[in-house]
Amino acid sequence: MKSGGGGESTTIDIEARSASKGKGPVMAVHHVKEEKGGMVRGMAIIDLVLRIGAIVAALAAAATMGTSDQNLPFFTQFFQFEASYDDMPSFQFFLIAMSLVAGYLVLSLPFSVVCIVRPHASGPRLLLLILDLVALTLATSAAGAATSIVYLAHNGNSSSNWLAICNQFGDFCRNVSGAVVASFVTVVTFMFLILLSALALRKHH
Amino acid sequence: MKSGGGGESTTIDIEARSASKGKGPVMAVHHVKEEKGGMVRGMAIIDLVLRIGAIVAALAAAATMGTSDQNLPFFTQFFQFEASYDDMPSFQFFLIAMSLVAGYLVLSLPFSVVCIVRPHASGPRLLLLILDLVALTLATSAAGAATSIVYLAHNGNSSSNWLAICNQFGDFCRNVSGAVVASFVTVVTFMFLILLSALALRKHH
After folding, report:
1. Partners and quaternary state (chains A, B) (predicted)?
2. Is the pTM for the entire model greater than 0.90?
3. Which chain B residue lies closest to A85 (C-alpha atoms)?
């Protein structure tokens, strides 16, 4: 009975310290949480790997979009017959957003490494989750905007009399479509990153 | 020394039960966590309020888009002079996506109530976070796609020879722009919802 009461007070002590600092109990009950720490550490390693994959996808999207200009081998006095991402504000937004996302991902790598080294620190993980959320929204809206323009370029729209331009600029359209696909890969990777962060925050305590 | 050892084993017991069920320790150390439970409960109440706001915004977006057809008071044999969301695949996608999001939000209300009643249950909260993430991506891509078409309808694009149609269909364009604004309100609300879920998961025991 006495021993049980002591047990409860020890628990309370650990809970209280966990609430105030989030750092003390790592040392205090380290031997208890060896397995759990390993699991959280594994999640952090997956986080780093996914993050590198997202960098590749975002850079591929930005680079493909940025280099997707096509000149037709003839021109007249009035028309230039040149297609580039510059012509469409949505594609410009796509390029800027994807470059921002790629830059953010590179800058987030050190924080991801911190999460591997110290699996029980919840501060950097929460920061990553918030910034990932913003980057996810940015990447998704850019992907959606570019997708609708790509669809229009492929199919045109008869009711508003917008003609398809992919007949003339096939290479341009192929490049842009590839960039859109890469951006959706980035979006899906971000969804897994946020999910991993939330799971790791749940395991943390 | 004996009591200390007993205390540590009790801690391990609670940790283990917490890992397996997530329900046992709520009763065991309930009197300790009164304050923390109140904070998590407050977050759950904010979650419910934000969710209702998101329902209103998503329904407004879907309804505004769905009712945004405009007939011009004259017609010829060849042209119909009628604009509706049906003409644009991006607007159709917008309507479907926003209806899905609104439906999901209504169905998620009971889970949000469960989170208020039982602030320490992490299962429904994690479920809500995952589904919110999917709904956020759906709403954001729909908003981005509709935005780029609305921009095109307002400004046109000279290099691809797509003319602005908002000169003719002013009411249609105003309705659609309003729907896009409402969808971005939904997106921002979802970002706060996910953030709240992540914070509540962190606060959980």
Report:
1. Homodimer and heterodimers.
2. no
3. B159
Nearest-CA distance B106 → chain A (Å) = 22
Binned at pLDDT 50, 70 and 90, residue A26 comes out as very low
H-state helical runs in chain A: 2-20, 24-28, 34-66, 89-117, 123-155, 170-203
pLDDT 10s digits, B28-83: 445 555 666 788 888 899 999 999 999 999 999 999 999 888 877 666 555 556 77
Would you say residue A14 has pLDDT above 70? no
Does residue A18 sit within a domain?
no
Measured CA to CA, the distance from residue A143 to residue A180 in angstroms comes to 6
A99 contact B CB<8A = no
Question: Is the per-residue pLDDT at A205 higher than 70?
Answer: no
Distance (Å, whole) CA A114 – CA A80:
52
The verdict on residue B165 lying in a domain is: yes
Choose the closest CB to B144 out of A29, A32, A141: A141
Give the domain extent around A47: 39-68+84-203
The verdict on residue B190 lying in a domain is yes
CB contact under 8 A, A89 and B15: no
Alpha carbon of A195: minimum distance to chain B alpha carbons (Å): 7
Q: What pLDDT is stored for residue B191 in this prediction?
A: 95
Instruction: Choose from A75, A137, A199 for mutation: most chain B CBs within 10 A.
Output: A137
Q: Distance (Å, rounded) from C-alpha A138 to C-alpha A151? A: 20
Looking up tokens 């939330």, which residue turns up?
A198
User: Strands B82-83 and A82-83: what pairing?
Assistant: unpaired
Residues in chain A closer than 8 A to B143 (CB atoms): 141, 144
ipTM of the prediction greater than 0.85, yes or no: no
Which residue in chain A is spatially nearest to B141 when comparing CA positions?
Answer: A144
Q: Which of residues 49-78 of B touch A (CB under 8 A)?
A: none
Please name the residue that has the structure tokens 């999640």. A43
Tell me which of A69, A126, A141 to substitute to probe the interface with B (most B C-beta atoms closer than 10 Å): A141
DSSP state of B159: T
Domain count, chain A: 1
